[in-house]
Amino acid sequence: MQKIIFYFILTVLLIGIVSCDSSSKENDKTEETSHQVIQTNTKTKPKENVVYTVGEKKVPQMDFSELERKVLSQSNNKTYVVNFWATWCAPCVKELPHFEALNAKYKDKNVEVILVSLDFPDKVDTQLVPFIRKKDLQSKVIFLNDSNMNEWIPKVSKNWSGAIPATLIYNKENRTFYEQSFTFEELESALTKTLIL
Amino acid sequence: MKIFKILSVISIAILAMAFVPSTILNKNKVAKGYVIGDSIKDFTLKNVDNKEVSFSDYASKKGVIVIFTCNSCPFAKAYESRIMDLDKKYAAKGVPVIAINPNNPTIKPEDSFENMQKRAKAKGYTFPYLFDAKQTVYPVFGATKTPHVFLIQNTKKGGVVKYIGAIDDNAFDATQVKVKYLENAVDAMLQGKEIETKTTKAIGCSIKA
To answer: Residue A87 burial by CB count (10 A; 0-12/13-18/19+): exposed, middle or buried?
Structure first.
């Protein structure tokens, strides 16, 4: 009888050790990948605060209601240039340097450039994050993960068909939406128009 | 003589003024395209089998699902198998699919006619995949992106636009779709009911002109 109890306890202990061991291995694994991308949450819970880290840059994931609250409806003294883009969109990628240049030129003049990525949720790690790293994007990047597009596209602008690139330039006084590509000159004049209007 | 000079300057100025608004007007006209209830103009484009296909070839059908799509756009790719399923489901009910690639292949080589032929063959498209080579059809529809869907009902007056927009409410994941906008519209049309949601918006790749 004592022998049986002894073996039982031994087995339980062994199972305990093995499972501890495997879980600590898994932790090691996640730490390894987290040098590149820290994901504070799993993909099964997209509504919670997922933040991708690219070098020193933080790229938060948002659904539309969060984006609307935090990015599209500010009423401070800043002017916001919000560009909707994706790594798969060639004309978007082509005009990104103009947004970067605008950000560099105007960031100290109460202007904030925000690049809202519409990449596919399963391509963030493999395409968006490497792209941001490779291009060393300086403007703020947000990953919008919200599949219910018919719901949120008209909230950005009634005139938006859904094609990208698209850009919203606004401050507390003026709000203009552009479904088009920009040259730097066009972009700068669109910004100054919003500033002056 | 001086009067002539002044007059010519004035007339040039008037001419210039007359030109500016008219070009702006034309631009708006092209960008506008069809709205719900519009009758559509017939069009003829080359299919991947090198034969010409006209909308009027489909006059005996109840309607047609016209989808502007392409090889290269990730959203078009995400919807490709759903587009194939739509044709399988609705061709039998008298509402087949016509796919049209509106992109300029000099900008997107992946969308060339040859690549369209390859893709249609490899995937086994059961519907025509037409090439808007001169880019004259998509502006008439007012398509701005791929995929962009127009449901046309054949009536005594010809084809009438009944629904414009997206296929469903989740491009990323077909298994997570909650509302099948296009199927709902086709079903309502076939039942002679009012289509509840006549237009929807979705993200897509801008058409490469």
So the answer is: buried
Q: Kindly provide the ipTM of the predicted complex, given to two decimals.
A: 0.77
Judge if B102 and B146 occupy the same domain.
yes
Q: Which of B74, B169, B202 sits opposite A162 (nearest CB)?
A: B202
Does residue B67 contact residue B149 with C-beta atoms inside 8 Å?
yes
B7 and B75 fall within a common domain: no
**What is chain B's Cα-based Rg?**
21
| Interface probe with B: pick from A147, A156, A167, most Cβ of B within 10 Å | A147
CATH classification at residue B72 = 3.40.30.10
Looking at the 3D structure of chain B, how many domains does it have?
2
pLDDT per position as a tens digit, B71-122: 999 999 999 999 999 999 999 999 999 999 999 999 999 999 999 999 999 9
Residue of B nearest to A153 (CA): B201
Average pLDDT on B126-136 reads 98
Angle at A64 between CA A158 and CA A105, to 5 degrees: 80
pLDDT tens-digit profile of B43-81? 999 999 999 999 999 999 999 999 999 999 999 999 999
Q: Do both B5 and B107 map to the same domain?
A: no
Of B78, B165, B169, the CB nearest to A148: B169
- Would the pTM count as exceeding 0.90? no
Relative orientation angle of helices A184-196 and A90-106, to the nearest 10 degrees: 50
- Print the domain residue range for B14: 1-32
Q: How far is A121 from chain B (nearest CA, A)?
A: 7
Distance in angstroms (rounded) separating the CA atoms of residues B166 and B58:
22
Chain A residues with beta carbon closer than 8 angstroms to that of B166: 149-150, 162
The residues with which B45 forms a beta bridge, in sequence order, are B53
